[in-house]
Amino acid sequence: MRLMMNVVALLGLIAFPTFAFAQDLALKRVMLSSGGLGYFEYEASVDGDATLKLTVGLGQVDDVLKSLVVYDDKGGVGGLSLPGREPLAQAFKDLPFDQNSLGSPAELLSTLKGAQVTVGGSRALTGRVVSVEDDPLVLPDNKGTMKRTRVTLYTDRGLQQFILEEAENLQFADPALREKVGQALVAIQGNRAKDARTIDLTMRGQGKRTVRVAYIVEAPVWKASYRLTLGADPTAARSALQGWAIVENLSGQDWKDVDLTLVSGRPVAFHQALYNAYYVTRPEVPVEIAGRLMPGIDRGGVTADQRAKSSPLMPAPAPYRAQQERSVGAMAPPPPPPPPPAGMAAAAEQIEASDAATQVIFKFPRAVSVENGRTLSIPIVDRQVPVQRLALYQAETAARNPLAAIRLTNDGESGLPPGIITLYERDKAGYVSYVGDARLSGFPVGETRLLAYALDEKIVIERDVAQTDRVASGTIANGALRLSRIVRQTTVYRVRGPAKEPRQLIVVQRRLPGWALAKPEAKDVELSEGNYRIPFQLPGGDQTQTFEVVQQQTQQQEIRLVESAADQIRVYAQAREFDARTRDALTRVLQLQQATAEAQRKVQQVDAERQAIVQEQARLRDNLARVPANSDLQRRYLATLDKQETDLEALAKRRAEADKAVEEARAALRTYVSQLG
Predict the structure, then answer these.
(1) What is the DSSP letter of 333?
(2) Which residues of 588-602 are buried (b: 16+ CB within 10 A; e: fewer)?
(3) Which residues contact 38 (CB under 8 A, 6 or more apart)?
(4) SS3 state at 260
(5) C-alpha–C-alpha distance, residues 39 and 218, integer Å
(6) Which residue, among 51, 39, 43, 31, has the nearest Cα to 73 in the 3D structure?
């Protein structure tokens, strides 16, 4: 019974995930990117040819196959191998049983009906498996049942049965079948970590040496957060900035004394399913006969005045600048200047920061240890930065009040990654209070950012928007009057400033596409993501000031003079924006249009007279049908009709003459217009 239970335990192995990420390789370096990728570098000491084992998560295999790199100065890579994506499925592919059959001896025997087995114990049997059936045993006093399995064998002496749980041992008689069962158990044992794969990396070389193996896989995005403490003096030019990096170790292994580097950037990264098997679908083609052929994915601003040159960066004070110069590339920072009272605690160690072509790199000066599943947060920036307080008005954010904001300048040696800034303010007594949060976008060296952190209720703003349209100039060419119209949109800001202190106000005004800024001058105005950022000075003293922002666009319009209405031409002929020659030409066009209109009026007059006669004739003919023949009234009607016919003939001649006059007037208008310009 004890032996049988051991067999049951052996056959009942289940593949549980285990992660032994580096069996022969020790993790030495971790580089995390804000793009959601992690660079993991291992080291191993080898002598001559060697095979290194590296276990990675199943979901990481694609990235490892894509990015694995080996550094060996005295050898080379022979290749790597790893189990298929579904190694267990492949292991059982050619076996007469599946993985579920190894769940228990009863399931295995039931699957292998017909196999010859030998049963040892008090009753030895040899025969082929016929059936495997449950045969529970009722315990005394009806205290439940005990699981039993009755197996029927076909033996030399006929059908015989035994209880599987009572057998001391059981063996398959066929050596080949025994080997297959053993292979299946080995495959299960080798795949206990069902969500991991072990890579065998073959190295070729001579002598003792250190081999480094690295790859890039998906990793949690590291985050940056900042603390900025504003001084008690609102006009102070610099404030203390401290930045922290938050890193999660969710790699499945502890980081023990690793060289940690953080990279802020936006690399182009792809994922490709290299671990999947792909087959090319081939078209089926007929047999060639008789030569048959078958062809076959706030960020700063720029100056709005294109003529303005880039202003130089605000230099750091001499003591701070000297500190920067000494600390570049040094493992330990020089002594910092004495901090102000109640100042922010400085970072214990100086983080080495550097700018690359497309990213900012933060390298920790000492080895770092982080247990799997834990979070690390450590200062990466600790210095004074240029800060200017101001008010930032964004109508879509707050229509009546601007936002309290700062203009932050990066005059350091490296860029800063994006993150949240928590702002504090120190009063004259040295006490610090929280004033708000702001969001910082990627911050390269030399750039500035406007960071809003609270509502500034000391300033009240009202605004009105109006639009005008006027003619600027006009010329005549090719029979058309070509007009230049200036459309202007004026936004009037009425601002009541703070009662005591002066303030700079930055108004964010939406830039109209295709329009130009006419007021104020563009030399002090910035462009940022489709907006103007326009500065105005508020002197303080609870005064109300009025500022105008004017955008304008020149629009072109063409009017065909021959087809245009006389009223429209009359308006343009009196426009003082045109020169005298153009106005005189338009006046002459108006005269010719009036002549044409007069000729057309005469045509209409003839048509009206003729229509009146035709209507009278219809009345007379209707009356003729009702009066007696040869009566005086009949003779009177007939005489009138005769006279009307004579009048119609005269009207026809007048109509022809009027039509001719219209054509002549139109021709004169066309001829004159064609000669203009």
Answers:
(1) P
(2) ebbebbebbeebbeb
(3) 30, 31, 32, 216, 217, 218, 219, 251
(4) strand
(5) 9
(6) 43
Q: Residues 225, 246: contact at Cβ < 8 Å? A: yes
Kindly report the length of the chain: 677
CA dist., res. 624 & res. 292, Å (int): 94
CA dihedral 467, 471, 472, 475 (to 10 degrees): 150
Q: What letter represents residue 576's amino acid?
A: R
pLDDT, position 14 = 30
Distance CA(91)–CA(387), nearest Å, equals 67
Q: Quote the distance between the C-alpha of residue 288 and its chain's center.
A: 53
Helices (H) and strands (E) in the chain, counts: 9, 33
66-103 burial, b at 16+ Cβ within 10 Å, e below that, comes to bebebebeebebeebebbeeeebeebbeebebebebbe
Q: Would you say the C-alpha torsion 93, 95, 101, 104 has a positive or negative sign?
A: negative
Q: What is the pLDDT of residue 179?
A: 86
What is the spatial distance between Cα 483 and Cα 488, in angstroms, rounded to a whole number? 16
Mean pLDDT by 10 residues, the chain (677 residues): 35 32 74 90 91 87 90 85 69 73 84 89 87 86 84 91 86 87 76 72 89 92 93 89 92 91 84 76 62 51 58 36 33 43 64 81 90 91 93 92 93 90 91 92 91 92 94 86 92 92 92 93 88 91 90 91 86 86 89 90 92 90 86 88 89 91 90 84
